[in-house]
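How it folds
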Amino acid sequence: MSETSLKETEKNRDVSALLIRSWVNLVISHPFLTITLVFLLTTVVLGYTVSHFNINSDFDALVSHDTPFRKIKREFNNAFPMLSGTLVVVIDAETPEQAMLAHDRMTERLKNETGPFKYIYQPGGGEFFKKNGLLYKDMDELEDLADNLADVQPFLGLISEDLSLRGFFSTLEKAIHEDDESEVSEEKLAMVFNRMIRVFNSAADGKSYQLSWQEIMMDKTPTGSDLRKFIVLKPVDGPGLLSIKDAISLIRGIAKELLLDEEHGVKVRITGSKALDYENLLTVRRGMGIALLVSICLVGIILYAGLGSGRLVFASLLTLMTGLILTTGFAIAGIGHLNLISVTFAVLFIGLGIDYSIQLCLRYRELIDTGLNRVDSILGSAFGVGKSLLICTVTTAIGFYAFIPTAYAGVSELGMISGTGMFISFFANVTLLPALLDLIPHKKGTVLPFSVGEKISQFPYTHARAIAFAALITGLVTVFLFPSVYFNYNPLSLYDPDAESVITANELFEDPDTSPWTASVLTDNMKEANEIASSLSELEEVDKTITLHDFVPDEQPDKLVLISDMALFLPYSGNLYIESLELDEYIEALISFEKELRQLQTSEEQASLHSVATSLLESIVRFKEDVMQNTEKGITSFNIVENAMLGHLPLLLDNLKTSLTADEFDEADLPLELTERYKSIDGRYRVQVIPSENITDRHAHERFVNAVYSRAPNATDAPVVILETGRTIISSFRQATLSALLVITLFLFIILRSMRGTLLILVPLLLSVMLTAATSVILNLPLNYANVIVVPLLLGIGVDNGIHFIHRFRSEPPEHGNMLKTSTSRSVFFSSLTTIVSFSSLSFSAHRGTASMGQLLTICMVFLIINTMVLLPSLLKLFLQKQTMMRRMRKD
C-alpha cells in the first residue's frame, strides 16, 4: 500500500478509527514515557496481587446466596453448624477388633488436640455405645449372640486361665481330643485353624495378621460396619484452606504415630467436603500452573512461526503478560478472590489476548514490507485492524458479561474478570505494543509460508454452493443429537479421580449406610419429625430415615433380660494379660500342638478336619524353619504370633463385660455429640434421609431428590443443593446463551449496518456450536459446572474471525477477490491456532472439569476455524461478493 492510498483510506475511517489513531500517535510520540508508566503500573498491581491472592474453593459459593434452596440450606446450617464443612476420617481394618481399637485410639488423640477442631464426633463409639450397644440389636440378633457365647464359653474360659500361646495350644489340643471340658464344634475348630494358618504364614513373611475373636464368637463374617469406622471433624475457620491443610497434616501425623497403617492391618484415609475442597484446589492450582506454562510456550512457538520475527514475538508476549497481570490485579482488587471456575481466566486470556497482538503485528509487517516507514506502518496497523479489534473486544466481552446477571456466581465472576480482561488486553495492545514496536526496529525474518495452494485456496469459491448445501445438511443432522446433550450434576466427576478423598468418597457411595450425600429436613418438633420420617420411609427411592427417636431402642426391658442372662456366660472376671514365655517354652508348646495335629490327620472320626489340619501343619513347619535359625529372631516371631492370636482377646472380653452392664435409657440420656446432630439448640429436629441407590448416577440422583421433594418440599443438604445448583446453572446457561446471542447480533447489526453481513458472521459460528454439541454427545462429554461456559463464551469470541473477514472484505477487498490470499486470513488462522493451543492446554489438567472445558473449547475452535476458512468464503462468494464488486465499480 502506498502512502497516498493510506491517506485516502484514512479519510474513510469513522470516529472510532480516528480515536485509535490519535491515541496510538500519542503513544509513539512518547514511547519511553509510555513504557515506563505501564511498567510502574504493572509492578504496583503485581505486588498487590501477590500479597492478596486468594482462591475460594467452596463449592457452595459457586451459586448466588439469594436462591431459595441456598436460603433453606443456610437456615439448616445455622441450626446444625457441625454438619457442614467437615473432614471425615475413614478407618478400614482387617478385623473388627483392629477397627474398634484404631477408632478409639484415633478419637482419643484427636480430642486431645482441641485447637484445630470445633467438633469431633465418633459415630457408634464412646462409652455410651460401649455400654448400651447391645440394646441396638434386635431380639433375634441378641438370641444368636447368646447362643454363640454359650458355645464358646468353655473354650474361652480355658484360654483365659492361661492367656499365652501355651494355654491356647493346650486348649486346642483338648478340643481336638473332643474333651468335654472344651466343647468346641468341628466347624468352630476349622474356623480357628484357618485363621491360624494365615497368622503363621504372615509371621513367616515378617508381617502381622490379627486373629479375630469377635468373628469366632459371632460365627459370621464381619460386615462393612464392623471393619469400617468413621470420625467426623469440623475444623476451625482459618484463612483460605490453610487450616484444612494443617488439620489434614495433624490427622496423618497421629495415624503414623499410632502405627495405623496397612503394614499393621489398618488403613486411614480422609475425605469429607473440606478434604475434597482442599485436594480439588491443589489439583486446580497444579493443573492451571502447568496449563499456563504450556500455553505460553506453545503460543510463543506459534507466534514465531506466524510472525517470523523474534522481536515481534517478544513485543507480543510482553504485551500479553502485562495484560494478564493487570487483569489478575483487577480480579483480586475488584472481586477479592478467584474461584474454581474463574481461575481458568488466565489460560483463556492468553488464548484470546494474543489475537490482538497477532492482528496488529501481521498488519504492521505487511505495511513494512510495502516500503512504509516504521511510524506510518504502526499507524497503518492501527487503522487497518484497530476498529475490528475494538469490535471483537466488545463482542468477546459480551460473551463473558452475559453470565454476570445469572445466579451462577462462579461463572459470573469469570465473566466479569475475563470480559474486563478483554478491554485491558485491547488497551495494552494499543498502548504498550505500539511503543515497543516504535523502540524495537523491525528486522526481517523468515515467515512460515501460509499457502494451501492455488487449487485449495480457490476451493471455497469454486464449490461455494456445494459447501453451503453441505453445511445446511450437517446442521440439520446435528439437531437430532441435541436431546442427548445433558448436564452432569455430580461435582465429584470433575475432581481428580486419583485423589484419596475422591476415591474414598466413591467407595462410600456404594453402601447406602455410608453414603456421603444424604438429604435432611428441618422440622419444628419431634412429632413433625417422626411424621415426615414415616412418610419418607414409604418411598422406593429412600432406604431409611433417621431421627433422634431412632437412637432410643425398642423393647429395652426384654433385651435387658436377655443381656443379664448372657452375663452368666462371661468366661472370666477381672483383668487379663498375655503371659510371655521363654523360647524353649514356646517351642515345647508348638511341638506338642504339632503332634496333636498329626494325630488328627489320621483320625477317622474327625475326617472333616483332615484338610485344614494338613494346611495348618504346613504353615507351622514353614514357621519353625524360620524361627529356629537364631534365638533372637525366634522370640520375636513367637511374640508376633502370640500377639496376633491373643492380642485382642482381652480387649474383646473387656468390651463384652462392659456391654453386659447396659441400662434402660431415653432421649435425654443420649450423648450430646449425637443429640446435637439431630436436635438444634432452639429445639428443632432434623430428619436424615438415606438414598436407596448410588446417587452418583444422575438419574438416581434426580429420582431421589424429586421423591423427597414430593413429601418434604423444604428438604435440603448435599444431594438437594447439588441438584438445585445444577438446575440453576442450566438456567443460567440458557439465559447467558440467549442474552449473548441477542446482544451480539444487535451489536453487529448496528456496527455493520447490514443484516446480511451480520448473518454471514453468525452462520459459521452457530454451525460450529452445533457441531460441538453433537461431538460432545458422540464423545460422551456432558456439560458440567466448568464447561457450561463454552457456548456463550464462544458466541463472544467466535465472531472475531468473521468480523476480521467481513471488515477487511468490505473496507479493503482484495483485487483478486480471494480472502484466503490476504494477510487477514493468515492472521485469523494463526490467531485461531494460538487460541486452540492455549485452550487445549487445559485438556491435560488432572481436574476433570477444567480438562472438559479445554476439550470442548478446543473442539469448537477447530470447527470454527474450518468454517471460517471454508464456509465463510463460500458465503461471501454467494451473498456479498457481487454486491461489494458493484459498489467498487460505482466508486471507480
Notes: The first strand starts at residue 55 and ends at 56.
